[in-house]
Amino acid sequence: MRHTTEIELANLEDMALANRGIITPEEVRRVTVKDALVDTGATRLSLPKPIIEQLGLAPFGNAKARTAAGIVDRIIYSTVEFTILERKGSLPVTDLPEGAPVLVGHMVLEQLDLCLDIRKGLIYNPDHGDDWIEEAW
């Protein structure tokens, strides 16, 4: 069964510039995706190239990823702030080809203390009620 969620994305570097008054808050590059795929087989937050370009993210590294098509090279881009179910987090993102859905991987779910319920979709971790319990680093 396919589960999707709305995710709001913002360029974290732009947000820092806005906080320092260098750009206006309206200049922060943002994107809202209504149907991001919750993929428990994915590790990271992965975005198609057009969204990466829209957010103005900068490449800074490479990673290998295991996909259904085998091992592929991915580019790691600068950090975004993301919001799902009113909870915010931040992570660098990896690229996907144009036309691919946004993939919300388990790093995102763990950071926001969310779980995928087969019947309800994405939910707050039931072991924690409505409390947001973060893992200690």
From the structure above, extract its key features:
alpha+beta, 3 helices, 137 residues, 6-stranded mixed β-barrel, two-stranded antiparallel sheet
- Write down how many β-strands occur, each being a DSSP E stretch of 2 or more residues: 9
**Secondary structure tally, helices:** 3
Mean residue pLDDT: 91
Q: SS-based structural class?
A: alpha+beta
Instruction: Report low-confidence residues grouped into runs of 5 or more.
Output: none
Main β-sheet, spatial strand arrangement: 1-2-7-3-6-5
C-alpha termini separation: 33 Å
Overall spatial form: globular
Strand content: over 45%
What's the helical proportion of residues? 10-25%
Largest sheet: 6 strands, mixed, barrel
Sketch the topology as an H/E string, one letter per element. Answer: EHEEHEEEEHEE
* Alpha-carbon Rg, integer: 15 Å
Please give a quick description of this structure.
With 137 residues, the protein is an alpha+beta fold. The protein has helices at residues 12-19, 49-55, 106-112, and strands spanning 4-11, 30-38, 45-48, 59-67, 70-84, 87-96, 103-104, 114-117, 121-124.
